[in-house]
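@channel sequence for tomorrow's demo:
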Amino acid sequence: MAHLHRSPNPPSTSSEVMLAINFNSTEAVDAMVTTAAKHGGIADINPLQDLGFMYSRHLADPDGHVWEMFWMDVAAMTAG
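structure tokens (generated this afternoon):
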């Protein structure tokens, strides 16, 4: 596998950045996390959050990067 940089990945106790991806439904969030975990990711490295207007799950990819998959109902959030 080719490496694009020489600096090491951060230790597993920290992360350099968290990337967030918005999905159209909670089911789509769950499907993405499940699929990514089947292919080498680590699902739910942080607790699942369900705030009613927002739902999110976290995944660490094989390189240790943290991804947040989330769904948010903007209308419900702004109404509250």
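heads up for whoever presents: The two ends are 49 Å apart (CA to CA).
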